[in-house]
Amino acid sequence: MNNKYDVITIGGSAAGIVAATTGKCCYPDKSFLMIRKEKNALVPCGIPYVFGFLGTTEKNIIPLEPITKAGIDFLQDEVIKIDRENKKIFTKNGKEFQYEKLILATGSRPYVPNIKGKDLKNVFTVPKNKEYLDNMLEKLKELNKIIVIGAGFIGVEVSDQLAHIGKDVTLIEILPHILGKAFDSDIAKIAQEELEKLGVKVLTNTKVTEITGTEKVKGVTLDNGEILDADAVIFATGYIPNSELARNAGLELNKYNAIRVDSYMRTNDPDIFAIGDCAQKVDFITRRSVSIMLASTATSEARIAGMNLYKLSTVRSFLGTIAIFSTKIGNKVFASAGLTEEEARKNNFDVKTGYFEGVDKHPGSLPNANKQIVKLIVSKESDVVIGGEVVGGDTAGELINVIGMAIQNNVSITELFISQIGTHPLLTSAPTAYPLIKAAQNVFISK
Q: What residues are labeled active site?
């Protein structure tokens, strides 16, 4: 292994892998090295499913083959220092490497609020760490009453999976409804009903003030004074950027401690890029800093960084994060893109909405047909789509990507209303009642 590389990527999860392979594809004559401290990187979005459908982390590992096949060197080690002046990095195992360009893809770690009892045995987080999760899975086998704190996507999906294997699960959320960042209350209510059908007890507008027990968890105390018995507590209260390496190197951070970047993913050092969970996010619509962390966003940023390592292209800039989420609870898919109606109004957008309920096959009597709900959020002044929410069968996961593309390209509601679509009885809704088009129609006629 050389001690000098043209491009070094620190971190080897989704963002790091895509940045390195994209960079090598665009600049095949450059030498690339990827360094990560973990032997095996986990598929980030697959982590909740190791608690249920997968049953083990072994089935959720990102293969290293795309890296080695692309001609990129790999090193398992931890980078502990960046010397920007001499363009060198230093590792925990005493190695040092020189670079021309550096890509930081150091990811994030779980955030745990300062609650009394958080250090008791059988209190867990959900990190992207195989060894930790293996140990956690082993312990959970003997534990039944499980309290999950935080009803974002990780909390909801972990609760779904634990209920799937027969655990007694209570999900506690401080906000008025679950999945609060991604859905309006009318859609979130449907998601909560699906969780409750699986046997998950959901408590919203509720705060955990203490985790009780001596050596290990015995229960949790709520802000109303109620005490719930518990064998285990899982914090799903969000993630914070792993930005200490960048901070120590003198790179600028934002208010969320994420690394500041421009639209080409460059930090304040033009030879250092930052992507994924460790890098700042600016909302595509509001232009405000947000703390959204998604693998889909990370890989988009990674492609931008990889393409622009040595030359800039004005058509390859990252113009902002469009939060595109999807999840499955029971047999129903919930997906969203852009701003919710509630978030749009909070940001002083004057909006109108369109809503339609249809079926994702035609006729609806076909096997495995599902009700499909589409809600669109549209700016009154510009008439462009700024958000959308979908509930339905598996096709909802792809339909939300269509809405995301409409947001990214400033598609007007008129264009969406008259757009041409392909349909098939077994695959899509009827052309006469296609929920996306009908929701657009309902916005259009409300002018």
A: 45
